Amino acid sequence: SIPGFLRRLAAISEMGVPLFQAINSISNINLGVLSTEVKLMYKDIVWSRSLFEALTKFERRVNTIAISRIVTLITKASESTANIKDTLRVAASDSDLSEKLIKQKFTVLLSYLIVVYISFFVFMLVLYVFAKMFLPQLPSQAGPSGMLGISTQKEAYSLLFMHASVIQGFFSGIIAGQMVGESPFDGLKHSMFMMTTAYIFFVVFV
Questions:
Q1: pLDDT tens across 81-107, in order?
Q2: Rounded CA gap, 84 and 9, in Å?
């Protein structure tokens, strides 16, 4: 809603309307989730008689980087000139561009996240095939050369495969969090999901 709000603010300011009156006019327009905040902003202007203080409170309530940048831009422009329509246009364009970049980033990172999940499930599928199809085909006793003694530890190897899947799920989730979020800690939810899935899968199906 921010780009639309700024464009309307710029359009009204072009008619010579002071900024606080422009905010009052826009407060009567449906801006979606932003409507309540604009109404509160105008009430703060009425009560405090200070546009800058109202903008600061608005910034604190919303508490996003984009809003902080826009409020700072408007505040600095208002200190130097009363005609800030060009500044509002620039702020609206900047907000539009930021929104587009966020959507593009989300699309790209979502594809990476899908690749991580596919790799994890393929890893589990390979271990499942080994546990259910390969190990049972081995003779129960080792041959004369002792080469097939692995078949005597089928349960141990199935347990090993489960542990490997759980460990793989933990680190795959961490990597997913690092790519999609801003730190590995953002991947803990992915790690918990993958680890739980791996454990349940091997307990139920293997």
A1: 666 677 777 777 777 787 788 788 888
A2: 10
